Amino acid sequence: MPLPSDLLGADFRLSPDKLVLLLTEADYAGGARQYRNRVAALYAARRKHRDQASAAAAAVVCHRTATTLKDFLAVQEFVVIELGLPLLPISGLVQ
User: Fold this and answer.
1) Which CA distances in Å does 30 have to 27, 34, 45, 68, 73?
2) Are 90 and 64 in contact (CB under 8 A)?
3) Whole-number mean pLDDT of the chain?
4) pLDDT, tens only, 17-55
5) pTM for the whole thing?
6) With 60 as the cut, is the pLDDT of residue 7 above it?
7) Quick one: three-class SS letters along 32-79?
8) What is the pLDDT of residue 6?
9) Domains of the chain with bracketed CATH
């Protein structure tokens, strides 16, 4: 299902009102911070529509491994504490 242009922060929809952003290790490993712009875009799109009947729920799914555990903590702080979005860590992209 294509996303409206103002909701491009999401990678896909689970349903018309459920947006999901997928962060891979490459998005945040080694202190990379590109993920912040993507998450902020999703947050802004969700916030823009939160008072409308078409408001979408948003969540961030993050690929986390033992090698990225240290970097994951920064992602967790930004997504959950600063923006208040749900964060779902996964151990593999097959899940």
Assistant:
1) 9, 11, 28, 8, 12
2) yes
3) 82
4) 788 999 999 899 988 888 999 999 888 877 766 666 555
5) 0.80
6) no
7) CCHHHHHHHHHHHHHHHCCCCCCCCEEEEEEECCHHHHHHHHHHHHHH
8) 46
9) 5-90 (3.40.50.10130)
The CA distances from residue 83 to 24, 36, 87, 88, 94, in Å, are 19, 11, 11, 14, 27
Both tokens assigned to 30: 């080694």
Q: Residue 29 gets which letter from DSSP? A: G
Please indicate whether residue 94 or residue 49 has the higher confidence score (pLDDT).
94
- In our burial notation (b when 16+ CB lie closer than 10 A, e otherwise), range 20-57 reads bbbbebebbbeeeeebbebbebbbebbeebeeeeeebe
What 8-state DSSP symbol labels residue 21? Answer: E
**Which residue matches tokens 């939160």?**
50
For 17, which DSSP code? T
